[in-house]
Design brief:
mainly alpha; 0% strand; transmembrane; 67 residues; 2 helices; DUF4305 domain-containing protein
Length: 67
């Protein structure tokens, strides 16, 4: 993967996280907690964690490459 692809993937993960969180807040406000808000909250958390881990790895590799 190129650097641009990795950064795009990180950005995509965070965008998906915020979109899913928006849906969770909207659905919970309308209907309360159900299966879909729980599923969306789980997926948003998963995307956030994956994006953060990938960003951490990217910055560690970039830091070591610049030494």
């Amino acid at each position: 993967m190129t650097e641009k692809q990795i950064l795009s993937y990180i950005f995509f993960k965070y965008v998906m996280c915020f979109i899913l969180l928006y849906f969770v807040i909207d659905i919970v406000g309308l209907e309360g907690w159900g299966i879909f808000p729980l599923l969306f909250a789980f997926l948003a958390t998963k995307d956030f964690v994956q994006g953060t881990r990938l960003a951490d790895s990217y910055f560690k590799i970039r830091k070591n490459r610049n030494k």
